[in-house]
Amino acid sequence: MANNSFRGSKHGRRGEANHETEFSCSLQELRSLMELRGAEAITRIQECYGDVNGLCGRLRTSPVEGLDGKSEDINRRKQNFGQNVIPPKKPKTFVQLVWEALQDVTLIILEVAAIISLGLSFYSPPDAERQNCGEAAGGVEDEGEAEAGWIEGAAILLSVVCVVLVTAFNDWSKEKQFRGLQSRIEQEQKFTVVRGGQVIQIKVSEIVVGDIAQVKYGDLLPADGVLIQGNDLKIDESSLTGESDHVKKTLDKDPMLLSGTHVMEGSGKMLVTAVGVNSQTGIIFTLLGAGEEGKKEDKGKKGKQHITDGATVEMQPLNEDGEQDKKKKNLPKKEKSVLQGKLTKLAVQIGKAGLFMSTITVIILITRFLIDTFWIQGVVWTAECVPIYIQFLVKFFIIGVTVLVVAVPEGLPLAVTISLAYSVKKMMKDNNLVRHLDACETMGNATAICSDKTGTLTMNRMTVVQAYIAGHHYKKVPESDLIPVKILDLLTLGIGVNCAYTTKIMPPEREGGLPRQVGNKTECALLGFTLDLHRDYQSIRNEIPEEKLFKVYTFNSVRKSMSTVLKNHDGSYRMFSKGASEILLKKCCQILMASGEAKAFKSRDRDDLVKRVVESMASEGLRTICLAYRDFPASEGEPDWDNEAQILTGLTCIAVVGIEDPVRPEVPDAIRKCQRAGITVRMVTGDNINTARAIATKCGILHPGDDFLCLEGKEFNRRIRNELGEIEQERIDKIWPKLRVLARSSPTDKHTLVKGIIDSTVLEQSQVVAVTGDGTNDGPALKKADVGFAMGIAGTDVAKEASDIILTDDNFSSIVKAVMWGRNVYDSISKFLQFQLTVNVVAVIVAFSGACITQDSPLKAVQMLWVNLIMDTFASLALATEPPTEALLLRNPYGRNKPLISRTMMKNILGHAVYQLTTIFLLLFLGEKMFDIDNGRNAPLHAPPSEHYTIVFNTFVLMQIFNEFNARKIHGERNVFEGVFNNIIFCTIVLGTLVIQILIVQFGGKPFSCVSLTIEQWLWCIFLGVGSLLWGQLVSSIPTKWLKFLKTAGHGTQREEIPEEELEEMKDMDEIDHAEMELRRGQVLWCRGLNRIQTQVRFACWIRISPHTSCDVVNKIILTVTFEKFSTFSRIRKQFSSVKDPREVTMTKTNSEWRGT
Fold first, then answer.
1. Cα 243 to Cα 235, 320, 322, distances in angstroms
2. Where is the Cation-transporting P-type ATPase N-terminal domain (predicted)?
3. How confident is the model at residue 1004 (pLDDT cuts 50, 70, 90)?
């Protein structure tokens, strides 16, 4: 049978590569070949090359031994056919980044006001005329001071320039970091090729035309190629064509393999024919890139590319308006980041309040000025005084903008960015590779974890420890002389050929170590078993290379088995099978006995064997595998190999083995921590229910006497479906709260369970579900989950792409660390909010009251820029980098509905605001008497700075510095210094802020509206600042339950709160983005215009572009973030294709990773 196999010349024409410098195929010829599909492609290959062997010859390569790997040959191929790299988009220049930073509307307002103020400051009418313009215009004692009126405008302009330059530098450094990260990813991505007859792994970027690449289940193809040999190969080409059906690849129907597509089932070899920009994906990528150059950036977003590998580019489906999108509209929406929604809603509310306060301030100032000047003083309007009046208007306008600047916590987006970026960096060390930043904080809200068993809860180092062979149940691996030679030969041959040839046992890396297991761990256990029996599986593979295998039925989650057919010399066939014992035993009609002969195996014998052997092994937590074979005599003719049901019957059982996969020693403790933290852990496995139950008990998921459910996939489906076979949410709601183990489950079952838990409303708290997965068909469940964890070691490329976080050590305890970091992110942002809102409440009331009472803000515009741009930034850096503690796992998850600002936090905010306002107003209205200094109130237009207002400003800043310590605790704890020295960044920033404040006050002069203070005045300022620490103890003594009148703030938008018409508008979106919802409601244009209320939802954009995010991308964010400000709201959508609902779409179930056996 030749449908899937290639049997060509062993050496092809590789020898000619050394003598000929040119190839018999041009680049254009190969490009045009790869544009063909199906019958057209086969016809072209036959007409031009004869067959694939001929094409290999033209490209000077061997289908069996590959390229010789010599550097001259590789370099020549790169020159002729290109490199497997797609050049990145040209980065923005520093000037472009500066221009973008200047688009901030609030900065533009300040610039315009500062320029007008600057221009008018140089106009000075004669004193006599100035006196005629009203009292406020005159009275300047020192001419030099009046002439220095330009300083305030210049200082504001300088501050704006400083902010713009630092913002641009920050963006530039982040882009540079990202480029560095991308090149590192390209270096780390590897693929398996055959060179010089050896199977090796090379960097994806090193793949060249003519390479023979080995493709297997779960791979993301890095280049275009033509199939040489395939076993049951099925490809998902939806990323290029938009077609969701898997395409079967065979030599006689469709041998064309395209880059960027996923191997969903089977394995094979392909001849690489196009790489990089010449591959089909590269061509489309180049076209899209060229198209984007001529478009505006906002329009270009629709065709966004997602670079997934060094040279593999995942594209959005081209037929965006096609049927697939129509299907999408009916699918349930996955809700996006909880935190983003809460922050956006809060920022919109604060922004509205700030705009209202600033408008009222300007109106009151102008009204007071007009009444005082033209009514009370009776000044007559003259044209000479107009510039003076305009100066006042500009001054009032600057005060109004100052109130707006103070009102809105523009440090908030920065705090979110820093907190998430810092967490991502640290999580890398805890074996969590975060692909999507919002997954960090979502993990902090997790209420349920659906975990795989193999490799996550267990060590994934499998060994055969028990065996049932020739009628004997051996409790440990038997000596080879105890097994009949005939059975031993069959066993060794069956295991050797019926395990993937990529799976092997390698020598230990160091002397005395354990042998290395490469490939599928279940198959490694079986190969190790043959070595324990002193047999060599490799000699069998050398004798029967993969090309000689007649037919392979690869493992998938439907078959739960794998079978390989060999053709004998006499025309007969022998098929070896291995798979889940209770499934394969039902297909056996004979069993080999001690004599080496087969005897009849009836249902009664099978039930007895299952009870005595299989259940006994499973109860000890062993995975049981049945090994069997079947002969097809030549006299019966060639069977119908496509009729699997008929082929996989009448087997003869060789043996049943028990494979041990020990529970990871750290897992029971990790699960205890989860349970204490209010997180339910469920095991979802393809294993036998008895094995699953035993492992769950060892892990601590189940405890003796617990009233919890353990179900098999079949029983689970029976319970959740109605008479018509449809899934009902009410039925799922009766099961999932008590379900702890789901055994013999398919990926569809996992998706159904995850969806059922997320959609459930049976509990008061909405469920936030995390899921682990490693197989290709785990993709839908990983996408559906709030947080998807893919296995870094055992996981396929497809699973990794569908995930939010990759576990680089495949260890469950790393998930617990992710929970800790997630909760820490949430708490860090709450800490910053508590601090920031205290500053804002006080500063707004002081600026507003001062402006209305004294016609001037006690806190000048430049001082406000210092407080906002520097203090906020420093505070966000200090409070957002608090390390997590074990105490975070001692409370239940916050969930979707908990407000960002709790009653305790509101008590702290208002309590400290009372102290600070009392202190500031005392200093403002009685300060001159308390310190025996000149009164600074009602100063003329260009009056010099006063000691009075300098003390007010200094005390205000010092109270904020000491209040940072109070803000470290948000749950009413008394000891605000606990663990403070564990955060070096916090200590450095508090000290640094204090030093800068001293320099501003003592040497800031006119630009900062300050005069130097005496030691006695400084001591009073410090005393009042420290007072906030003592006041904090008093505030925390007041029980929160007494203050029921306090309201919470920062609630997320609930699904039921979204109006029908808005839901209708979102029907073509994959996810409900709460942040976008709030933007729509909060007057989008207004939000875009005011940078201060932008909640900066784009912090993921720089990092999420790559699915293998590393901590490198955040290094510079932490270092250069001092003046960070961001300028546009941008939408974030996960680049996920739609998740299929199992009720509407039948999913192809594949999983050759042997998880489910």
1. 11, 11, 10
2. 46-122
3. confident
User: Could you tell me which residues come within 8 angstroms of residue 337 by beta carbon, excluding any fewer than 6 positions away?
Assistant: 438, 441, 442, 1074, 1075
Q: Tokens standing for 694?
A: 């035993």
pTM score, whole prediction: 0.67
Q: What is the pLDDT of residues 510-557, one digit of tens each?
A: 777 778 888 788 899 999 999 999 998 989 998 998 888 888 888 876
DSSP, collapsed to helix, strand or coil, labels residue 653 as: strand
Q: State the amino acid at position 83 in one-letter form.
A: Q
How far is it, in rounded angstroms, from Cα 884 to Cα 870?
A: 25
- Angle made by CA atoms 1103, 1108, 1111, in degrees to the nearest 5: 60
Please give the Cα distance from 306 to 283 (Å, whole number).
15
Structure tokens at 92: 């923005």
Contact 613, 471 (CB under 8 A): no
Compute CA distances 682 → 47, 671, 674, 693, 1067, whole Å: 57, 10, 11, 11, 32
Q: Give me the percent of the chain exceeding a pLDDT of 70.
A: 74
- Long-range contact set of residues 320-325: C-beta below 8 Å, sequence gap at least 24: 322/242, 324/238, 324/242, 324/244, 324/1138, 325/1068
Per the model's pLDDT, the better-predicted residue between 850 and 527 turns out to be 527
Helix or strand (DSSP H, E) at 129: helix 127-131
- Cβ atoms < 10 Å from Cβ of 775: 31
CA angle 727, 729, 732 (to 5 degrees): 85
For residue 718, which amino acid is it?
Answer: R
* Separation of first and last alpha carbons in the chain: 29
Measure Cα distances from 402 to 157, 840, 868, 953 in Å: 14, 11, 10, 14
Range with top average pLDDT, 110-119, 296-305, 692-701? 692-701
Residue 222 · residue 188 · CB < 8 Å: no
Question: Where are the strands (E) in 968-1075, listed by range?
Answer: 1071-1072
CA 736 to chain centre: 27
Token pair of 233, please?
């190969």
1023 compared with 385, residue with greater pLDDT: 1023
> What single-letter DSSP state applies at residue 371?
I
CA atoms of 947 and 927, how far apart (whole Å): 10
Answer yes or no: are the C-beta atoms of 1072 and 336 closer than 8 Å. yes
Phi, psi dihedral angles at 588 (to 5 degrees) = -95, 135
Q: State the pLDDT at residue 288.
A: 64
Residues acting as catalytic residues: 452
pLDDT digits (tens, 9 = 90+) for 617-640: 988 888 899 999 999 998 888 888
